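Structure first, sequence second, as always.
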């Protein structure tokens, strides 16, 4: 993101991020995910929180695929090389509102941390999922064989990466 933003004015960066995140918001609603927050150029959403789904892992993967496609369309329209890496993990979380001023609704737990960390192992415009997510979605042919990676604080973790699209 820093590389893309270097050649743009602050207003152009704001406009671009607003368009990207608004697209992601629409896709999250369409696929039954809940946007939690944005952190810089990162978009954090949860599946299976306050919005029930038959299989929250499937919903998260459907959303991820739609995000990649939507960002590709925005890249084509803008002429800016926009790419995304996506990490998905399935597991328990704790959510709620904290604080006395500027209260924030958020989710916490190892599940959130693992999803954030495996995102870094994904190729540009690809998805990385944890073993627990893969076990819930193994009927899909979207992912290749698992690879063991070392995650900070977590240790060795089996991760599955989306296969390149033709």
């Amino acid at each position: 993101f820093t590389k893309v933003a270097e050649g743009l004015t602050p207003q152009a960066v704001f406009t671009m991020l607003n368009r990207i995140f608004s697209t992601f918001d629409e896709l999250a609603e369409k696929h039954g995910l809940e946007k939690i927050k944005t952190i810089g150029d990162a978009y954090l959403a949860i599946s299976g929180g306050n919005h029930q789904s038959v299989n929250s892992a499937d919903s998260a993967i459907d959303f991820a695929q739609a995000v990649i496609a939507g960002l590709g369309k925005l890249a084509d329209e803008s002429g800016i090389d926009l790419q995304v890496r996506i990490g998905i993990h399935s597991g328990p979380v704790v959510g709620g509102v904290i604080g006395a001023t500027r209260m924030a609704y958020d989710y916490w737990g190892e599940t959130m941390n693992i999803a954030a960390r495996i995102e870094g192992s994904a190729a540009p415009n690809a998805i990385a999922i944890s073993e627990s997510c893969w076990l819930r979605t193994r009927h899909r042919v979207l992912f290749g064989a698992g690879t063991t990676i070392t995650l900070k604080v977590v240790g060795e973790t089996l991760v599955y990466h989306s296969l390149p699209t033709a």
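Margin note: The chain has five helices and eight strands.
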